[in-house]
Amino acid sequence: MRAFSAITSSAITVMLFGLFKATYAFGTANVWQWCKNSDVYCATVKGCGPGTAPGQCPGVHWDKLEHGRNITVDFDGYPSGTGMTIMCTRDPNASPIRVTQLEWTWEQGQGKVYYDVSNVAGTPFVDEAFMLHSVDAKDPGKTLNRCFDAWCDKNDVSCNQVYEVWNDDEQAMRACYDGAILGLQLCL
């Protein structure tokens, strides 16, 4: 079953990369909402580091993200070294709130972006699979192994490719050149 899921994820990745390359500039972080049976709310937050409770992040404003729509943030839209997050939940009024988030920091002087997916604040998308993928402008075929993807299969409550606790750096942190396109696909 896991092999089938990996093959299916690969096919979806190839299809979505084609869409990304045709529609998006390099140097961006994106979250795509594919959940058909429930609402999804997302917020773009500046300076919300790993392990910070969602209610304590500055400037959290939740917007409903419709099915098939996405959020795109340019790396260079914020100063180099600024931690950024696109947080997504099914219920922004829940207590405690459950959030899956794409986190990144663009380091212009290094020519890199450091990124991860975090489920530290819960697993609101555990019933459906989700995937983080990257496109490296300098290596779109991924022959140099510079940018790494992550995915969680449907009902995988302990996904080993994302942050489940704040210090999962060994399994969750990734780095890529700052010309990359990062994309988190919710509900595959």
Summarize the structure.
This protein is of the alpha+beta class. Helix content is 14%, strand content 34%. It contains two helices and eleven strands.
Overview of the molecule:
- The protein has helices at 2-23, 169-172; strands at residues 28-33, 41-46, 63-64, 70-74, 83-89, 99-107, 112-121, 130-135, 150-152, 174-177, 181-186.
- With 188 residues, it is of the alpha+beta class.
- The protein has a single domain (2-186), classed as Sandwich (Thaumatin), CATH 2.60.110.
- The strands form two sheets. The chain has a six-stranded antiparallel beta sheet, with no helix packed on it. The chain has a five-stranded mixed beta sheet with strand order 4-1-11-8-9, with helices on one face.
- β6 and β7 form a beta hairpin.
- InterPro entries: CetA-like.
- Pfam families: Bys1 (PF04681).
- Keywords: Signal.
- Residues 1-25 form the signal peptide.
**Residue runs with pLDDT of under 50 for 5 or more positions:** 9-23
Overall 3D shape: globular
Q: Structural class from helices and strands?
A: alpha+beta
Question: What fraction of the residues are assigned to beta strands by DSSP?
Answer: 25-35%
In whole angstroms, how far apart are the ends?
A: 16 Å
| Biggest beta sheet summary | 6 strands, antiparallel
Corresponding CATH architecture: Sandwich
From the alpha-carbon coordinates, what is the Rg to the nearest angstrom?
Answer: 15 Å
Tell me, rounded to a whole number, the average pLDDT: 82
Order of helices and strands: HEEEEEEEEEHEE
How many structural domains? 1
Helices, by number, come to 2
In the sheet with the most strands, the strands line up as: 3-2-5-6-7-10
CATH class: Mainly Beta
CATH topology: Thaumatin
Number of strands: 11
The portion of residues assigned to helices is 10-25%
